[in-house]
Amino acid sequence: MLPDRVTSHPVLLRLFTPADAPGVQALVADAQVAEPTASIPLPYSPGAATAWIATHDADRQRGTLYTYAITRTDGAALIGAITLRPVADLHDSIGYWIGRPYWGHGYATAATMAITALAFGYLDCETLTASHLERNPASARILEKCGFTLLRTVMREHRGQVEAFCVRGLSRDVWELRIGGSPGAGLPAEDSTADR
């Protein structure tokens, strides 16, 4: 089981609560946030955030999907979300979205580095994958900064059209080399100080 809260400056990853629903609703109602993702419906209907958050505990208990809210380290502002699937299926291992007011501040990179460290440090993951639309260079840069390399380009259905997706991957061995060969050194700090 992964920790409930971890800090990886400048972000805090924590479990979502029902109180986060209005913030999620506001951020993903922005089509520029939702459109490039594989799983956020467009339009984002009222109540969708509440229903989505309600699925997290069962997924976490099964160990099939870990979803974290991304906030600033002070926990004051909901920035986005990041998910980890220990075993990739139709979806890749890692997926994320960031609210548009928070683009360009390094939050997605910090969150991706943290979730990668959790996957390799706490779980038996040997390889992680993440994909992005070929036309989304910002996600390409985020994943490259985190050590993910291009594995292949595939054509997938996306919002009623077939589009090119770049599938990127990172192995445990490469990650351990990046952090200096010591898996514990790459782990974000568990945060047990805030209310749960």
**Helix count?**
7
Strand content: 25-35%
Structural class: alpha+beta
Order of helices and strands: EEHHHHEEEHEHEEHE
Could you please describe the fold and organization of this structure?
The structure is a single chain. By secondary structure, this protein is an alpha+beta fold. The protein is 30% helix and 29% strand. It has seven helices and nine strands. The chain has helices at 21-28, 31-34, 48-54, 56-62, 107-122, 137-145, 172-178; strands at residues 5-8, 11-14, 66-72, 78-84, 94-98, 127-133, 149-158, 161-171, 189-190. α1 (21-28) crosses α3. The two termini are 16 Å apart. The model has no long low-confidence stretch (mean pLDDT 91).
